[in-house]
Amino acid sequence: MAELPLVSTPAGTLLTPYIAVLRSRMRAQQSYRLSFASEVFSAFLIGLIEFAEVWVIFHTVKVLGGLDLDAALLLFGLSNTTFALAQVMVGHLDSLPTLIRLGTLDAFHLRPQPLLLQLITSDISLRRLARAAVAIAVLTLGLMRNDIDWGPAAVVLLAITLIGGILIFGGIFVCAAGLQFFLIDGAELTNSFTYGGSFAAMQPASVFPPPLKILFGFAIPVSFTAYLPTICLLGLPGPPLLPSWLAWWTPVATIWVWLLALCLWRIGTRHYQGGGG
Amino acid sequence: MAASDLSDTIIDIENLTREFTLYRRNGKKWRRTRDTLTAVDGMTFRIERGAAVGYIGANGAGKSTTIKMLTGILVPTSGSVRTCGLEPVRQRRRLASRIGVVFGQRSQLWWDLPLRESFSILAAIHRLDPDITRKRTYELVEQLEMAETLDTPVRQLSLGQRMRAEVAAALLHSPELVILDEPTIGLDVLSKQRLREFLRAERVDRGTTLLLTTHDMGDIERLCDRVLVVDHGSLVYDGSLPGLGATVGARRVLVVDLAEPTPDLLDLPCDAELLTSEGDGMRQRLAFDAEKTTAARLLAAVSDRAQVRDLSIEEPEIEDIVRRIYESAR
User: Fold this and answer.
1) Rounded to an integer, what distance in angstroms lies between the CA atom of residue B151 and that of residue B136?
2) Residue A13 in 3-state DSSP?
3) Which residues of A, range 69-108, sit inside 8 Å of B by Cβ?
4) What's the fold here for domain B2-246?
5) How confident is the prediction along chain B (330 residues), in pLDDT tens digits per residue?
6) Residue among A7, A27, A270 minimizing CB distance to B75
7) Disulfide-capable partner of A77 in A9, A138, B193, B238 (CB 3.0 to 4.6 Å)?
């Protein structure tokens, strides 16, 4: 007689279904050790190269958009930490077209959980933690090298920024996923949304012309993930349209992104035409 | 709610329609034309609790689209659909606990995990009680003979093994309605046989309602007591399998082995028709309508032209019957 499958997670708690899937994904990723190690290494390299780019620019220009190299460390650290951590959790959302083609999304419809929650918890990219590690190291360096007035306000602002930033980038991934229902082959357009957003977040927004300031400050508010908190922590006033006190409005920007994300997702799922077959 | 739960109807479809919008590029790059394809066109039928229904039709007839609307995957364009007394799209999550669905060419298992783990995860997803899960898994593993494959990663399973695993996965939460889309596609005879036996037993033991689409008439013959034939999004037949044969006029096939190579036997009496001819006409297959003529009269006509060495009679091919329904409906 066969030994029976063990169900280790107790039935009944609210998170059981999601935890069971996530645990299995983590186990699966670690079971191929060599490939996991090489993926971690390449994610680490990507993080380093991205940082090298910033370092080279500021090494030659000294000051860009009112920020020097030390301030740029903070800017890079914040934007990349939040983006990389969002990517760890929801980066797989950009493979939605593949999931549609394979019928995985149809299978999600047949399970008693909300689709978006199932999709978000259907995978987790542990290898991308390596990229987050580079970003966190740069962020730590930036926090040490800058002259920051370390009162409770700065600590709270940093916490709001890290949590809000991860949520903002996560929401942008969901927006892009919602759009994928309409653009099955539109991976490039939606990537420009997510990766473009992260790239814009790394730039000192003061150099943007007003339309871009409005785009990245308010429409797709990635400025809240790094630029605004950076100038706020450094006590700089900030350019027109993006004053540094806006950094405290990150929760509002987060709510806006998620409203947009949930709307696009809902419209997208209603538009869903099935995976064929 | 309680009232519809107690009723005997498990699937209730009325005037159900689903259209797809297709965009086609023609000529100039930015010009596109809009086409509307009606996959399901004003479909109406009911299925009683405990029934076993075969849902057949050609590729693209609208079978999968109907199933996707029944299960809450697709939003209907118009008309109404109730499954287990629920509205599939609006009450999808509640419905998901009460139905099991197998898509023959899609997997709902985790390809990189041992089968055993897929079952554990599905049990967690459906929030099943561990004791009930253990009992149910044991039952399924026994009946579907999967004991040796439990520790194999899903991607290494053979097609037959994977299909049985898919069925077990869809039935783990003991759904009252099981919908199978091409469950036997690509399976060998033995695997098909096992799966059919299992589904019959499941129906007898638990009163599970079965709805299956298939191209394999053996599935219909052995499992179903009602057949729905769909063509171009509409029902063209609803009734029993023998009734289906009677409706289109069951044609039998007389196979004659002749003593020597013979020209094709054409112009036979009573509309008998040559189907195939093999080995220089040494074996010829002749279709005839049992209501218009008898095998004996046809055999006599053949004997006038050639020496018959051996003969056999084939029962009506159901595929042929379905094809004829399509043709007559057109």
Assistant:
1) 18
2) coil
3) 102-104, 106-107
4) Rossmann fold (3.40.50)
5) 444 445 689 999 999 999 988 777 666 666 677 888 899 999 999 999 999 999 988 777 889 999 999 999 999 999 999 999 999 999 999 999 999 999 877 888 998 889 999 999 999 999 998 899 999 999 999 988 889 999 999 999 998 899 999 999 999 999 999 999 988 888 888 888 889 999 999 999 999 999 999 888 888 888 999 999 988 899 988 998 888 777 766 677 888 898 888 888 877 777 788 888 888 888 888 888 777 778 888 888 888 888 888 988 876 666 677 777 767 665
6) A270
7) A138
A107/B107 touch (CB, cutoff 8 Å), yes or no: yes
Q: Does the ipTM surpass 0.95?
A: no
Provide the 3-class DSSP secondary structure of residue B127: coil
Q: Is A22 on the interface with B (CB under 8 A)?
A: no
Residue B145 to residues A81, A141, B201, Cα–Cα distance (Å): 50, 60, 14
Give the pTM: 0.83
Residues of A in contact with B146 (CB under 8 A): 2
Distance from CA of A129 to the nearest CA of B (A): 22
Q: How far is A38 from chain B (nearest CA, A)?
A: 19
Identify which of A7, A31, A110 has the shortest CB distance to residue B130: A7
Secondary structure (DSSP) of A55-106? HHHHHHHS-BTTB-HHHHHHHHHHHHHHHHHHHHHHGGGGGHHHHHHHTHHH
- How far does Cα A223 stand from its chain's mean position? 13
Chain B contact for A19 (CB, 8 A cutoff): yes
Fold classification of B250-329 (topology level): Alpha-Beta Plaits (3.30.70)
